[in-house]
Amino acid sequence: MLNALHNDPLGKLILRLAVGGLMLFHGVSKLLNPGSIDWIGGLLQGYGLPAVLAYGVLIGELLAPIMAIVGWQTRLAGLLMAGNMLVAFLLVHTGQVFMLNDNGGWELELQGLFFFGALALIFLGGGRMAVRPD
Hints:
The protein is mostly helical. It has five helices and no strands. The longest helix has 25 residues, at about 10-30. The protein is globular, with a radius of gyration of 16 Å. Keywords: Cell membrane, Membrane, Transmembrane, Transmembrane helix. It is found in: Cell membrane. InterPro entries: DoxX, DoxX-like_oxidoreductase. It is a multi-pass membrane protein. Belongs to the DoxX family.
């Protein structure tokens, strides 16, 4: 019974589907609501950066999750998603680092799970159950 639980390829597949699939919802939302990209562009301009960089969120929240889900260039996909989460943290969430939500959890638990899940994909790769195993 316990040997059946030793399945690294299945664990990597579940991680890819979870991180990529859940991050993809955020990207689709931004694609369907272009005002959110304009809002991100405004934040970037506030830091003296060009607003056009806001379109990079589509790489980190659409392209990279699709890459992770299918298992093509999974390590790169993880890097893009982790980078996306770092930028989101720096632009929007720095004031929430030491805050708890109404349920007693960390205010940034979703962002943390995305970031650390993406980091895990960088180090683990896609596994055997990927379009392009590494």
